[in-house]
Amino acid sequence: QAAAMNKEYPDKMERSSNPKMSSRSLEGPARTSNPEGGGMPEPAAVEHLLQQAKWASNLLRELADGKSAGDWDKLQPIILNMAEGLAFTTASKGGLGVTVGYGHGFVIKKINQDMYGNSIWSQPLFFTITQAGFGLSAGWQRSNSMIVLPTAMAVDVFKNGTISLGSDLASFSTDGALLGMSGGAALGHRQHLGIGVNANTSAFCFSTVNGAFVELSLHTSRVSPDVHSNEKLYGKGYVPDDILRTPGTSLPEMQPLAQTIVEFGRKSIAMK
Q: If 119 and its partner were Cys, which of 6, 113, 186, 215 is the partner (CB 3.0–4.6 Å)?
């Protein structure tokens, strides 16, 4: 995995814009209200954020543990140091002939990283995913995924929203990666690495999959900003670019995930 990423994006491991950044900087300032939204976030949104951060942290550990994966599918810590963004999704799809899928998640963007594996990531931007397909399909499948985004352009897919056409005729497909789902057949519980590729960028998708689903179909996928969730947390008039430029350290609820990412980042440096 790391070799593939390093070959395509050789500058990632040389990034060290602030070598003196300490773990203390991860604590961040106290929460501030959104000047555009006019007030503090809703309590329900704060609780949702905390649960999402804990879920993403546990997923990251499960993917790195790799008990249901081979050496290739297992998440290697060095991958996090080479990423420009991370998207966490949970999604389900199913059908008989006609396939329908829906998912949601959030994306964070790397703001800073030092030579010791310490990193600071942005506030989360929430999004939804929908998929509709027609072809040979049967069953139901649910997946939890972490999508490693090697470039800022890949992050933009989740920031701006996109519609894509594709098929699950191949083992790996762009839409499969965006939905955190693989093409072909999925039976029982397993861990899966997918590589999504389109004309402009690529992404590495690590997933745990539950269910039994066989698909050979054409489909359309849409990634859209989750306006409802974003407004509850940041207020109306939020600007996606501002969210992805603001350190997530301003949101204490993100600490479970932030600390896990830094833990893995430091581990990858120690393994050199």
A: 113
